[in-house]
Amino acid sequence: MCSELTSAQSEAARQMRICNACRYCEGYCNVFPAAFSIDKFDAGELSYLANLCHNCRGCHYACQFAEPHEFALNIPASLAQVRNESWARFVRPSRLTEFFQKSAVSICLAMVILLASLLLLIEFGGNPCGEGFYAYLSHEMMVAIFLPAFLLPLLAACIGVRRFWHAMQGRSLAFPDLLKAAKDAGAMRGLSGGQGQGCQYESGDRATNHRRIAHHAAMYGFLLCLASTISGTILHYVFSLPAPYGLFSLPKLFGVPGGILLLAGTIWLAWLKLKSDRSLADAESWGGEMAFILLLAFISASGLALFAATGSAWVPFLLALHLGGVLTFFLSLPFTKMVHGLFRLAAILRFLQRRLSEH
Amino acid sequence: MTADKSSLAPVCVRRVCDKVWDVIVVGGGNAAICAAMQAAESKADVLILESAPITMRGGNSRHTRNIRCMHDGENPPLTGQYSEAEFLQDLLQVSDGNTDRELAVSVIRRSADCLQWMKQRGVLFQPALSGTLSLQRTNAFFLGGGKALLNTYFQTANRFGISVLYEAEVCHIRLSDNSFTGVEAMIGGKSVIIKGRSAVLASGGFQADLDWLEKAWGPPARNFLVRGTPQNRGKVLRDMMNQGAVTIGDASQCHAVAIDGRAPKFDGGIVTRIDCIPFSITVNQYAERFYDEGEDLWPKRYAIWGRLVAVQPGQQAFAIIDSKSFGLFVPSAFPPIEADNIQTLAEQIGLSGEKLTRTVQEFNAACRSGPFDPNALDGLATVGLGLPKSNWARPINEPPFRAYMLRPGVTFTYLGLQVDRLARVQGQAGPYENIWAAGEIMAGSVLRQGYLAGFGMTIGTVFGRIAGEEAARHVL
């Protein structure tokens, strides 16, 4: 990889060199054991460490070299900066990531534009023969918009993660590693604080599991919503059962609890973020991250509202709002905080690979 | 770090001064907070006066990472067993017999239930850190180290209703005959009097007072670095000495190790340690070797190098290694000085290239071939040198070459208050009625020389608990 370090990377390298001589934080997470086996902190290694970090902040409150000490260590903030930079570096075009990270407004702006266009489409593209919300936006139209809007950004994100994988000098994947990484990520071990005491996030130096639980709710809620969409697609194409679906159909059984979990989780995450100390994260991308959480909250809330409004006159309006949110989410996916899931999974996988090769 | 900030408000200072406290604890490190918790658990009304700001609270305990405890097994995270006899043996060995046997045995016995006591107060432990496996049987490591331990203790103290005042430097212990009545402290630039029925003195040693060190060591002390908190200026210790308290040890005794010369004057902590000496040749500013770098295993020798460097001209030395030894030791926080030949390296560190080249050549010529084992006394010694290197002697001949500048780094001092088994401070006419001491300020009572890893925390925890309990018992 390129040998020139950015200023955020040089700062992280300086800080990690001090960590490497101390090692007290070894028990909090994988970042420190990973760092201690690294000889030279180059750009690839620093991106690797940064994406292993879950910003739990245990190390910061334990650090005898944190400010006002002249070594001025702030590992959570330093790695957050490198992490955000790494997403911009690996996912092209970089400018878009920077744009979405640096300004919350950008997401809202994109959303307003999309919503407006959708409302226009609904006005002129409705299919009076369609049922349910297809009466307002034909199925073909929806597919024509959403399939590329979903697949192209996902492809961009995957290419980005692939480049990240090469920068970490990752080897080909083995199934047991994948399973273990999925387990680690699924249990949010990175937010456990090492012994299940949790993050030191919203209550100063006191550890709680609030962030871990909130993230669980948001992540599993999101996955259930995804399952809802996939099951709907299968019902539509394989079994020729188009929407609307009843309450006891798979899409609803996945979607309703998923939506509720996602909504609760994201609102809780946003609340925790408000209470947390901003100087222990990447201050520049705070707005973008917050906007991303609220976007997810908005999608789940509008989806639930759409379900509740079935059959009423509110449907076209809510549908436009909901689909506008979903479309915004997908289109911006490779450039927002959403990529953290993929990058983190890759970093955990690489950690497991390295640990195996060391033993 | 939110809970205690309000205690700095002036109104609180007034509240603090308006009452008579059951127990006033002077200091904010491990011993102090242990004493405070123990006293508060006996329902005493406890005030902690910590001279540091909240962000730097905890004295040298911030830099610690483990506690040494005896145990019969089944005491996680410790492995195996560590008997009273073995513990005592270790202590007598490192202190060359300069140990108060009765106090030492008392500390060792009472260390047995420390881990349980700590866990009950919220402390989390972790397995021995990488590179410290030799300690996993004897020393229990705190998750995140000493500062995390202190954070947990301060949270617990807060729950127990203990009051904490930060940036409150105690300058004088007020005595009436043989009895404590209160303290004089500087708070917010003003001198205030705080009244109390008993006191626990746990304000550390005096190693951050360079004037005091200079009196004992002469001008070279100006070049010493202090590895821990700048707060340990020994004000309370000196005040008690002035009032006739019995002391133990002398001011020239300190624990000092060789640390990176670029370390900050204070508070550099563990990351400034230089562990490459056994694999190096170490020279003074005349590029001459001055001690057998491979005399014994590093854990048994690192504590003598502070003094060795302290008596070299300019109080500095330089450890030189070649590429064969990279990665054999935990690196310092500072990148080493590196060059492709000895001449250039010497110029970069301000030594005579010619002299250093000659020293290296002489050393290399005295090296013989044989098996090298970095983890054991390998007997790979030089042959024919006036000053031999007894182990790990491999020629310094494979570039790149690296140099670390060394200075003495003072960890702690031994001069302190004499206490008895119940942690009572001794005055001219026997023990004071209501003054106890714990931690570094009295550690010299237990051992007056040498050091055993994690034993400072054992003394602090054990005597902190005793002092807190006794002080509370006295007033309640």
Structure report:
The complex is a heterodimer of chains A (359) and B (476). Chain A has helices at residues 7-20, 31-36, 43-52, 58-62, 75-90, 94-102, 104-125, 139-167, 175-186, 210-237, 250-275, 286-308, 315-332, 340-358. Chain A has 359 residues and is mostly helical. The relative contact order of chain A is 0.14. With 476 residues, chain B is α/β, with parallel strands linked by helices. Chain B is 28% helix and 21% strand. Chain B contains 13 helices and 21 strands. Chain B has a six-stranded mixed β-sheet with strand order 7-3-2-11-21-20, covered by helices on one side. In chain B, helix 2 packs parallel to helix 6 (146-159) and helix 11 packs across helix 12 (353-366). Chain B is elongated and about 75 Å long. The interface between A and B is large, with 34 and 38 residues.
Can you give the helix content of chain A as a percent range?
55-70%
Q: Report the end-to-end length of chain B measured between terminal Cα atoms.
A: 32 Å
Content of β-strand of chain B: 15-25%
Tally of contiguous helical segments of chain A: 14
Task: Give average pLDDT of chain B, whole number.
Answer: 94
Q: Which chain pair has the greatest contact? A: A-B, 34 and 38 residues
In this structure, how is the largest beta sheet of chain A organized? none
How would the global form of chain A be characterised? elongated
Give the SSE string of chain A. Answer: HHHHHHHHHHHHHH
- Main-sheet strand order of chain B equals 7-3-2-11-21-20
Query: Which spans of chain A have pLDDT < 50 for at least 5 consecutive residues?
Result: none
- Total strands of chain A: the figure is 0
What value does the average pLDDT of chain A take?
Answer: 89
Largest sheet of chain B: 6 strands, mixed
Q: Approximately what portion of the residues of chain A adopt beta-strand conformation?
A: under 5%
* C-alpha end-to-end distance of chain A: 26 Å
Number of helices of chain B: 13
Question: What gyration radius of chain B follows from the Cα positions, in whole Å?
Answer: 24 Å
Class from secondary-structure proportions of chain B: alpha/beta
List low-pLDDT spans of chain B.
1-10
